[in-house]
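From the methods appendix. Each design record in this collection lists the tokenized structure first, followed by the designed amino acid sequence. Records were kept in a plain field format so they could be parsed without special tools. The example shown here is representative of the layout used throughout.

RECORD:
FOLD TOKENS (412 positions):
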């Protein structure tokens, strides 16, 4: 049996976001005896919820295991900007893997946002979902010329987006930057409500939610098994690890690292303080700021990332980081009221190439995992559910290599 690391949800985030749980939400129950299923999923956050919904739609018997309240771990720290644009620009990703592979990754991300939109509409999930444009702002060393080159690469890949210069940007949106790429096809949602809606759908199809802690698991034999703190065992044909930023040592990859991010949510704003169409806004720099609105007109503003995940160190910076975010918000939106409704921070996983780690855990044929989403958390969670569904059916696709856990970072 393999021992997972022991990290509580309080280590993953501090403070609280503006999200509200559904009026009816799923609640896990302890096991009374050992059990079996087709697929055991460790983690009842947004990734586990997408996987549970998809696998139950495939007709599989699913058990979802989590030691915490469903959706109240790292999912509750998400800002839920459902973007198809990836942290690493297309032109840089093409420099690592070649244009064809990089463009396919971007197109898969685009289709993932479209797919989760269809799913939310089909299931009528009450999660404040709204389609949004994105505004990719010039920042740091990335100016108008670099944005024009990025937009050209995207058009070559068949992806949409228009470049506006500083004059056009100020006139349309009020942002004082040299330029931006404005693109359709992204969205926003309430991540906790979305998680609960997906889990409710899965439980109505027969999925079991088990409130317990996984203290050991095995995926090397003819069947996988999860040992729980209660002493019971869940045996399954396949085991999926979807534990957010609590990555067991067996899944660690040289491309992956943990980091910390901070976010604030203002009080509801007057209409004149908000920008056109309430687009998702993020900066074209390595350590970027990002912001969106909520249905009530709050501004959610995040960033100030640091390359560590130690919870005590992160919480020690909460006050300073909150004030830094307020200052950046004021610089970009001088009419906005800076009074805060919420402030929080959390750990997140990212990779050196901006792509997630999804697929089989090397050396463990019954064990699959999904980690390292960076700024595309929920978008890549949806993609992970589809990849894992295909792998469980025994299907392989050439493009799975772009997300393989043991892939190598090789510059073409």
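DESIGN:
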């Amino acid at each position: 049996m393999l021992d997972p690391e022991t990290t509580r949800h309080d280590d993953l985030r501090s403070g609280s976001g503006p999200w509200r749980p559904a009026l009816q939400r799923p609640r896990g129950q302890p096991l009374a005896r050992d059990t079996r299923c087709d697929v055991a999923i460790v983690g009842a956050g947004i990734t586990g919820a997408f996987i549970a919904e998809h696998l139950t739609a495939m007709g599989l018997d699913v058990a979802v295991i989590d030691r915490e309240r469903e959706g109240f771990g790292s999912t509750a720290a998400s800002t839920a900007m459902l973007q198809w644009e990836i942290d690493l620009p297309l032109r840089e990703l093409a420099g690592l893997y070649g244009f064809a592979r990089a463009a396919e990754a971007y197109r898969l991300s685009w289709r993932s946002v479209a797919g989760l939109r269809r799913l939310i509409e089909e299931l009528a999930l009450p999660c404040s979902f709204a389609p949004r444009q994105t505004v990719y702002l010039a920042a740091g060393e990335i100016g108008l010329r670099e944005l024009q080159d990025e937009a050209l690469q995207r058009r070559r890949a068949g992806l949409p987006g228009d470049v506006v210069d500083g004059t056009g940007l100020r006139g349309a949106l009020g942002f004082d930057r040299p330029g931006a790429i404005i693109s359709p096809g992204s969205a926003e949602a309430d991540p906790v409500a979305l998680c609960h809606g997906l889990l409710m759908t899965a439980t109505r199809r027969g999925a079991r939610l088990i409130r317990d802690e996984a203290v050991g698991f095995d995926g090397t034999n003819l069947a996988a098994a999860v040992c729980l703190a209660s002493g019971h065992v869940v045996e399954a044909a396949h085991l999926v690890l979807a534990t957010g930023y609590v990555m067991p040592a067996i899944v660690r990859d040289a491309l992956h690292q943990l980091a910390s991010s901070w976010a604030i949510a203002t009080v509801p704003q007057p209409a004149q303080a908000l920008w056109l169409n309430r687009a998702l806004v993020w900066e074209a720099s390595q350590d970027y700021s990002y912001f969106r609105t909520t249905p009530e007109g709050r501004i959610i503003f995040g960033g100030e990332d640091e390359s560590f995940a130690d919870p005590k160190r992160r919480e020690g910076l909460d006050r300073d980081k909150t004030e830094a975010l307020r200052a950046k918000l004021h610089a970009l939106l001088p009419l906005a009221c800076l009074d805060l409704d919420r402030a929080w921070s959390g750990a997140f996983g990212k990779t050196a190439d901006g792509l997630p780690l999804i697929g089989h855990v090397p050396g463990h044929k019954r064990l699959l995992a999904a980690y390292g989403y960076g700024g595309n958390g929920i978008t890549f969670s949806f993609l992970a559910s589809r990849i894992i569904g295909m792998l469980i059916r025994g299907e392989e696709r050439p493009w799975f290599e772009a997300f393989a856990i043991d892939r190598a970072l090789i510059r073409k």
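APPENDIX NOTE: The first helix runs from residue 9 to 12.
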